[in-house]
Amino acid sequence: MINVVFFGSSAYCIPLLQSLHDHFHLRLVITKPDQKVGRTQELRKSAPKEFALTHNIPFITPASLTREPDHENVIHAMLDSHPTIAIVADYGLLIPHDIFTLPAYQTLNVHFGKLPQSRGAIPVQQTILQGDTSAYISFFVLEQTLDTGPVVCEKKFPLVGDETTQQLYPSLFETAALQLPDVITGYIEGRYIPKTQNTSDNFQLST
Question: Which of 5, 11, 77, 115 has the largest count of CB atoms under 10 Å?
Answer without folding.
Answer: 5
